[in-house]
Amino acid sequence: MRKISPEERRIMRRSYAEKIMETVRTKGFITLTIQDLARLMGISRASLYNFFASKEDIILEVTEIYIDYLKKTNQFINNPRFSYVQRLPTVFEQSAFSAVYTSEIYLNELKSTCPDLYSRKLELANERIATLHSFYKNGIIDGDFNPLNPSLIVAQDEAALRKILNSSFLVDEGLTLEDSMYGYYEIMKYRTFTAASMKKGQDPYIKNVVEVIVSQLTKI
Predict the structure, then answer these.
(1) Half-sphere exposure of 62 (CA within 13 A, CB side)
(2) What Å distances lie between residue 177 and 78, 154, 160, 166, 185, CA to CA?
(3) Are the C-beta atoms of 140 and 147 separated by less than 8 Å?
(4) 81 Cβ partners below 8 Å, 6+ apart?
(5) Could you tell me which of 16, 178, 186, 214 has the C-alpha nearest to residue 97?
(6) Distance from C-alpha of 178 to C-alpha of 158, rounded to nearest angstrom
(7) Which backbone phi and psi does 168 adopt, to 5 degrees?
(8) Positive or negative, the Cα torsion across 105, 107, 112, 117?
(9) What is the mean pLDDT of each run of 10 residues along the chain (220 residues)?
């Protein structure tokens, strides 16, 4: 058997962990056996142990996916080198994925079985909220954003996106996932930007963001 390089192993670990994220999100992981996890990954139990030392190691990788995503997007949202028009789509994307992947069952099981990992996850989630507050406050100070309460803005987005993405809302309203993503982003844009700083027409930065969200969530 060809020896796998450390980089290849890292990539394959992440790829296998991504395959079980939806099950972990919707059903938790405590009741899953190693055999269950191998089946979800599409590999044998023996092959699984080539990449993961234990069940806890698998959950570590699943959680690290979300932690790495939060770190990367927090850094971009907090970077004043990019315009608010460029950064708001990432705020939207981050809010959408946070609504999907931070389920109550997953967080409760992580807290009870891996408290240190849960603390890291919670710390990054709190940093995310602080980053969003800073983003909106700075936008207001710079005169680009309407003077709205950042806490209420963040709470509104989380509640709305959880309803859109985690229920039968789309079916009941006859909406496609793509339509709902563009539609809610338009609400965010008109709510956030002042009339003077609003750019008319479709935001060129939102197209790629919506494509990423739709491609990821349609896999689910």
Answers:
(1) 26
(2) 28, 21, 14, 11, 12
(3) yes
(4) none
(5) 214
(6) 18
(7) -85, 15
(8) positive
(9) 78 94 90 95 94 94 93 96 94 90 89 93 93 97 96 94 84 90 93 87 79 77
